[in-house]
Design brief:
Blueprint (H helix, E strand, L loop, with lengths): L4 E4 L3 H6 L25 E10 L18 E6 L2 E5 L3 H12 L4 E8 L16 H5 L16 E7 L18 E2 L13 H10 L17 E7 L6 E3 H13 L4 E4 L1 E2 L5 H12 L3 E5 L19 E7 L17 E4 L3 E5 L3 E5 L2 H18 L5 H10 L20 H10 L11 E4 L3 E6 L7 E3 L2 E4 L8 E5 L5 E3 L4 E4 L3 E9 L5 E10 L10 E3 L5 E4 L14 E4 L8 E2 L1 E5 L6 E6 L6 E7 L15 E7 L1
Parallel strand pairs: 6-8, 6-10, 7-8, 10-12, 12-13, 13-14, 18-25, 26-33
Antiparallel strand pairs: 1-9, 1-11, 2-4, 2-5, 3-4, 15-16, 17-20, 19-23, 21-24, 22-23, 24-25, 27-31, 28-29, 28-32, 30-31, 32-33
Helix pairs in contact: 4-7, 5-6, 7-8
Amino acid sequence: MSKPRFLLTSLLSVLLLSGTYPLAAPSAASASEQPSAPNALAQDAHELLVQYKELPRSIASAPSLPAETEEIEDVAPAVQLLSFDTPEDLSKAEAELQRNPLVETVEPNYERAVDMTVNDPFYGQQWWVDHVQAPAIWPHAGSQSAPVTVAVIDSGIDSAIPDFAGRIAPGAYNFTDGTSDVQDVNGHGTAVSGVIAAALNDRYGITGIMGPYDVKILPLKTIKADGTGTVSMNVQAIDYAIRRGVDIINISQGGPAASVIEKDAIQRAEDAGILIVASAGNDAGKGNPVMYPAAYDKVLSVASVDQRNQHSSFSTYNDEVDLSAPGERIVTNAPGGRFVSMSGTSFSAPIAAGAAAMVQAEFPGLAPAETKKLLMESAKDLGAPGWDPLYGAGVLDLRKLAASLEAKPEKAKLIHVSAIELDRKTASLTVGNPATVSAIRLTARVLPETAADRTVTWSTSDPRVAAVDQTGQVTAVGKGKAVITATTTDGSFTAAAEISVVSIAPFTGDFPDMEIDQTKIFAVKFNTPLKRGIDYRGFIRISSDPEGTGAAAEAAVRIDPADPRLLYIAPLKEWKNGTSYLTIKKGLPADSGKTLNRDTKLKFTVR
């Protein structure tokens, strides 16, 4: 049986047929293609800001307001925003307000824009950046709590492209041949990475959706030159991304066959706090099959829309689609410093992945389900009201997402775990004598101490040697060595201690049954010296029954001064005729600190 293979979800062949060709590399002449900076003095032609010298009790009902006023909004103390139907009404009202003795200032409601200009030569051709209102969220980069890393599981990357300078994370890996060479010979991975992370304002090429954010791409190559890969490589790449502690994973590829193994890997990513974003697929015209990994529950499945917010004819639609994003005529990077215009849900997914990474930048450690919920709830609804299979929750809207982030409480900003330490790296336990050290508690220190999720899971490499519970309590089971590991839920960081378990013979005496005379002195020999200076009478009982509950006889008890392993037990006068039982009680102390681990009995008969 052949392995399931994934196909890239972009439409290169369609593009070539429709006359969309690679763009030229940027040059000095391309500066004319730059968009003009927003006009900071532009104004809404229908609004005036009015500041009053003093505030009447109900300024909204003040007779001095112009009759042309349509809407009134309190903006600040003694400041209101007045709206008008036409510029002519505004002009007439402005003149009237200027004459009002209660009015301090009248001015247009000037537009304000981010203090930023964009000098990337092909920015003007990136219609999708403004379409999803990315510049509205870019100011949040100033409050970024931590750098973010997006793993791109694809065909690699051309790291020599200036747009990626300083934006490629260490540890890139090629799962198609088991090397660290992730040079992109297909082009797809480079294009996807550019959509996410191409540098803003580097006077080169394009900008990625993340603009000024501190973002790095971790290229994980699972797609070969022919545009195909396998589930096994994807699973390896997902687990590798988890170990590297990435924040978001983008998978712009898919196939119609579901995989339990791949689904399990995605669950591991979810458990590690990583949201996976995947392309919904480009097979709407080929029977519209459900595509994986996009269709798994834990994945954010992204469909494509065009510049008019119409569902792209090629975009696969089904009950698993979560969100839409632009996916047609996406200008992006290509190997060798070229630029291409591409279409497909392969490019819708990284736009959404970049948005998810911006959420993580402001709220590190936010659960994948919460990040997904934020993106979907802030989307602009398209198609049928509410969720529908064509658009999911709607098209990505970063202006609304920015507002949602501003509304989240500061305490929601979570801090990731960065390391874990144990209070010891080795420990020795014993079996065979409960009176010796047979258990120990390990203590884990999760760093930083302000990390939001400090949960630790404990495990043992060999439960036949040492067991561990989820409090870190380690108990000896059998002779040998075992490694006890503590693993953080956040980030899967680990720390370990080696436990050595040795076997010790129980502390017991040698007591065969015997027949004695009435004056017999018992000499009980132990395998270790007894503790001196102890009144041992409390540990000795002579009774008429094995349980030690019958009539008792008194005895004199002492240690042999020359050999403290010997304990002498003698009658005060003489032993009573018949059968009796000598009990040496559990807890009798040895000089080493050990104690007798059980009651020991001797049956004797007086003739």
